[in-house]
Amino acid sequence: MSETLDLAARTGLGTARTEGGPFRGLPIRLAATLRRTGLYLALPLVLIAIWQGLFEAGLIRPILLPPPTKVAQAFVALTLSGDLFRHLGISLLRVLEGFAIAAGIGLVLGVGIGLSRQLDRATDLTIQLLKPIPPIAWIPLAILWFGIGEGGKIYIIFLGAVFPILVNTIDGIRQTDHRHVELARILEVSRARFIAQVVLPGALPAIMTGLRVGLMVAWMCVVAAELIAASSGIGYLIMDARQLAQTDQVLVGMITIGAMGKLLDILLKEIERRLITWKTVYSGL
Amino acid sequence: MVAATARIEDLRIGPLSKTYRLSASSVLALKDVSLDIAGGSFVSIIGSSGCGKSTLLRIIAGLEPSDGGPVRLGGRTIERPGLDRGFVFQEHRLLPWLTVAANIAFGLKGLPKDEIRDRIEAHLKLVGLEGFANAYPAQLSGGMAQRVAIARALVNKPEVLLLDEPFGALDALTRIQMQQEILRIWDVEQTTMILVTHDIDEAIFLGDEVIVMSARPGTIKKRLSVNLPRPRDRTSADFLAFRREIYREFFTEAEAPFAYVI
């Protein structure tokens, strides 16, 4: 143990040390990392602590809101029985199927509408009318059309995800820099090259935003659809637990949904970072 | 090198006018402008902002129509943009997602791969950016980015290079360096150069001729032949005499006599 510490000191990491504060005496880089991680985790940890504290003080009834310790136990039990990840896997698969269809149709249609004024005129009213209808409002029809099988859920997910993707793609293409349009005219650039090298790369940041929002909506839609009509999936897990008044399991399901949403967003953000290397992002004050 | 020996054709502009129609009124941006530019010469057009000098350049480029007056390059009438005319904008307008090489190749078409590679290489060398083929625009300084823009405009071997205040956004030292560079490039490429600027020194330093324009409506006020040998000394008495002459077109002697940028 002391040998590792000596090594850290000799590699130069240990040469500069912070002088004050909670991480006093630690190497500066390590202290900075700890500080950032601490800031990131502080709020959720405080919320959990308050939640546990309310339970310990006897201020909340465990049946209405079980304490974090109880939820953690339920999480371990559901993980060990395999139920949690089985349902999670089923939900994820539905999201990926619905999202893939939405991304395919949204991108192709969005690029088409973005490029063609005629197509924009022809589709605008329909899109604007369909867009405000919440995907959940389609569930009664989806059940009639598809039963409680996979088709209905994928249809709901598709409806939720397709509009953010479509609208952002159209917007991104419309925001093509007119100075680049002029440049392409000067150089007599062909339409195909203009689209491939000017329009699409320029629209890519907006398209990625559309995909991220779309994926998030897709994830919310699958849970909504499963809450109402399903015999599997994370939404079903929650509904099933509610009927048995197992609120700890309900909370495990909810927290899993949140964690999965965060993971999916990290994934798409990383893809965006690798695709769009030319843009410097404003990171706040 | 057939292109180098072929004679560069003269440019005959106008007489032309240009009106911009606004919602309620219309503005006469150019009025009865006539200009003949000899093939292979370097012409500077100078004027205060709003005098229509950029509009004139855009009409020559084919980016905007005139009210009807003709622009002829040799026997051809210009109505739309074409590869016989290159254009360098004030901002570099490089595509940020393409490498320097891909930016230069952006306007190249119908050429075999090795010809494209050769041309990119030759033009990177011409503008002094060998080794930067794979860099991205964000990694370049303002002067370097403008060099790439010049290479991109020249890679199609145009007869005329139109320069719209190309060094206006650069710092003073880089600007002087780029002025020397553009003369060297002109010497190699032998294209006709038309430079729009509001920098009197720049206009005299670069031009065989300086065209002075006046504003509202934009007309050609004066045409000066700069019969000074190159390389020109910006501090010589002859140079200063030209500077004073042009300066007097814009200001009276009493006003800030040492300023030379309008």
TrEMBL record, chain A:
Q: Residue ranges of the ABC transmembrane type-1 domain?
A: 88-268
Q: Does the keyword field hold Cell membrane?
A: yes
Q: Which UniProt keywords apply?
A: Cell membrane, Membrane, Transmembrane, Transmembrane helix, Transport
Record's Gene3D superfamilies?
Answer: MetI-like (1.10.3720.10)
Indicate how the chain sits in the lipid bilayer. Multi-pass membrane protein
**Which SUPFAM superfamilies does the entry link to?**
MetI-like
Q: Which PROSITE patterns match?
A: ABC_TM1
Task: State whether keyword Manganese applies.
Answer: no
Tell me one GO biological process term. Answer: alkanesulfonate transmembrane transport
User: Where in the cell does this protein reside?
Assistant: Cell membrane
Highest taxon in the source lineage: Bacteria
TM ranges: 39-60, 98-117, 129-148, 154-173, 194-211, 217-238
Spell out the CDD domains in the cross-references.
TM_PBP2
**Entry's Gene Ontology cellular component terms:** plasma membrane
Which one Pfam family would you cite for this protein? BPD_transp_1
Primary location recorded for the protein, binned into one broad class: membrane
What function does the entry list? Answer: Probably part of an ABC transporter complex. Probably responsible for the translocation of the substrate across the membrane.
The family assignment reads:
Belongs to the binding-protein-dependent transport system permease family.
- Return the protein name: Sulfonate transport system permease protein
Question: What lineage, starting at the top, does this entry show?
Answer: Bacteria, Pseudomonadati, Pseudomonadota, Alphaproteobacteria, Rhodospirillales
Automatic annotation (TrEMBL), chain B:
The family database entries (InterPro entries) matched by this protein are listed as:
AAA+_ATPase, ABC_transporter-like_ATP-bd, ABC_transporter-like_CS, ABC_transporter_ATP-bind, P-loop_NTPase
| Family label | Belongs to the ABC transporter superfamily.
- State the Gene Ontology terms under molecular function: ATP binding; ATP hydrolysis activity
- The chain's coiled-coil residues are none
What is the top-level taxon of the source organism?
A: Bacteria
Please give the Pfam families that the UniProt record associates with this protein: ABC_tran (PF00005)
Q: Where is the ABC transporter domain?
A: 11-240
Keywords recorded for this protein, A-Z: ATP-binding, Nucleotide-binding, Transport
**Keyword ATP-binding belongs to the record:** yes
User: Which SUPFAM superfamilies does the annotation name?
Assistant: P-loop containing nucleoside triphosphate hydrolases
Q: What species was this sequence derived from?
A: Magnetospirillum fulvum (Rhodospirillum fulvum)
Q: Which SMART domains match?
A: AAA
Indicate what this protein is called per its UniProt record: Sulfonate transport system ATP-binding protein
